[in-house]
Amino acid sequence: MAEIIYTYNNKPYLNLTNRCPCACKFCIRAVKDSVGSAETLWHDSDPAWDDIRHALESSEALFFNAGEAVFCGYGEPMCAFENLKKAARWLKERFPNLALRVNTNGLGDLINESPTAHELKGLIDTVSISLNAPNAQRYHELVRPRFGEGAFCAMLHFARDCRECIPNVKFTVVDVLTPVEIEECQLIADKMGIPLRVRTRA
Q1: Tell me, what CATH number does 87's domain have?
Q2: How far apart are the first and last CA of the chain?
Q3: pLDDT confidence of residue 169
Q4: Which among 100, 95, 102, 130 is positioned nearest to 17, based on CA atoms?
Q5: What's the number of domains the chain is made of?
Q6: What's the chain's average pLDDT?
Q7: Chain CA centroid to CA 28, Å
């Protein structure tokens, strides 16, 4: 059985789904079955809210002094949007000083067919968005979203919405990009007023 809650770099992570609308060329899921403390992060199917709540209740000790908990597993957390919000409310009620972060590909609006950033207001403290390319064509080549080339613009739009209602918004790129492409991504991030971090490929 896949872990719903696991630890990585001394932080609790919530693995709510394996669904993802992308097939990134650099995805860690193609390399190994788990990270951190998890033996496997592959669910047979998305865990129901009752299962998530039970996992939270059974793992409360992990959150007391964690500082931050992260929604990030072997799928796109915005594919389990309703359970993400329920889990965030549960955590905020019991651990009001715990910061919550969502690591996302930024395609939540397309996944849920409606604007999503404002629904995270008051629940999520940080949204980390995978920029991963300097333009739509390169994004489509590397990230391979099922939504087509329009996904790049949708991701940027989500980032702008997050800036209006989330305290901390960040971009990331993976170091599979060329130095020139990373510089171009930095220009996008600077123009939008969002910090950029370069991640090492798994």
Answers
A1: 3.20.20.70
A2: 23
A3: 98
A4: 102
A5: 1
A6: 96
A7: 14
